[in-house]
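User: For a reading group we're discussing how well predicted structures match intuition. Take 1-acyl-sn-glycerol-3-phosphate acyltransferase. Before you show the prediction, I'll give you the sequence so everyone sees exactly what went in.
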Amino acid sequence: MLQASAVADQLSEGSFSQRSLHTLLYGYVRYYQGARWEPSSVPVSGPAILVCNHVSVLDPLLLVASNHRVISFLVAQEYYDNALMRQLLEQTYSIPVRRDRRDVRALLQARRVLEDGRVLGLFPEGGIRRDQIQKGVAWLVQESAAPVVPAHVSGARQGQSDLATWLRRQRPLLRYGVPLHFHRNADAAEVLGATMSAIATLA
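Assistant: Thanks. Here is the predicted 3D structure of 1-acyl-sn-glycerol-3-phosphate acyltransferase, as structure tokens, for the group to look at:
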């Protein structure tokens, strides 16, 4: 993993390829998809866990386009297995995770992102149209005491394939909630319950 000093947090500090990717994604979701979003409530500095419901492959693009900080996502391993997708994901220092089991290595890398004072993006549902709430967010809160920023996407739907979803114009809406602050000793059920409730209230 890259040293903290070598990892950009603000997009203005990023490489030309990072800034170019952000500009491309911004133009795509704003003008092609007709997306709308509220001002981000992600803190301007310091560690933060950005959590959002997951309805389509457009969701992470909306989060990236609406923020000026680099967001490192936990991303399903199958996306990293695609060479083109991997090159794009590496621009945000995203972390591949296996969904068929508890991926301890990915969680440790995610904790390092927060230790470095950066933003970690999570979809607590564990995948599109899934209802099994992942407990990783609670463990990361307990390990880092980082604030949890809830977000909610509506007006988007996953198509028959990722490509079909990207091509279909959907006019999604992204809303942000007030950051949640938990004590390191907070119960996992409390963290998960409050987090999912905060996301739901944004619907």
